Amino acid sequence: MTKPVRLLSIAVLLMVAAGCTNTPGVATMPDGTSTTSPSATSALPPRPKEIRLDGITPEQVCALLTEAQTKRLGIDSIRTTKGGGRFDNAGCSFSKATAKDGYGYLVTPTTQEGAEVWLKPDGTVTARIVTAAGYPAVENRRPNDSRGCFVDVSVADGQRLGIQYSYDSRPVPYTPDQLCAKALEMAELATQGLIKLHG
Questions:
Q1: Phi-psi region of 41 (alpha: psi -120 to 50; beta: other; left: phi over 0)
Q2: E strands, 40-194, where?
Q3: Quick count: other Cβ atoms within 10 Å of Cβ 79?
Q4: SS3 80
Q5: What φ, ψ does residue 29 adopt, rounded to 5°?
Q6: What pTM does this model have?
Q7: pLDDT of 82-119, one tens digit each?
Q8: 103 Cβ contact partners less than 8 Å away, ≥ 6 residues apart
Q9: Which of 1, 42, 92, 156 is the most buried (most CB within 10 A)?
């Protein structure tokens, strides 16, 4: 590693350490801007405690939010999902199936890989470190995705609770930051529910 690259890595680590807070739903980067993957590190802030996702069922994932919370989000459909994605993990879909402004949240527990995977230097997403219910998380978005955003909450070593927000109607009335704020809101609520589930 060259000296300039090593100094940049140290500077990024210091920024992350200085900007970490336990304030729920608040980005931990001090300037509030997104940190693209090439300059990010794999070091996440510590968790309050580990919450293992082994054995959690899709039905339990669907029960992470209260009825009042789902109503506040405008959700009118909650259903379990079959396995999908790279690891074929099942989860829960929370959606508003309205023709004019349909949108949805997909909440998926992943036990095969931690949230820090999105901070790899060779990543293809725009990512930044945030917090959800006091847990470190990584907000990540594909550069060409104008309809959605992801937040992956680091709940245990090598495990994450993944949240995807997607606006399904056209045109999309939100900026990328607003889309990510919606994903982070669900991450906050789902993580709160996970904390209660595990006592």
A1: beta
A2: 77-84, 89-96, 103-110, 126-132, 135-141, 148-156, 159-167
A3: 10
A4: strand
A5: -75, 130
A6: 0.78
A7: 877 778 899 999 999 876 789 999 999 999 999 999 99
A8: 74, 95, 96, 165, 166, 167, 168, 169, 182
A9: 92
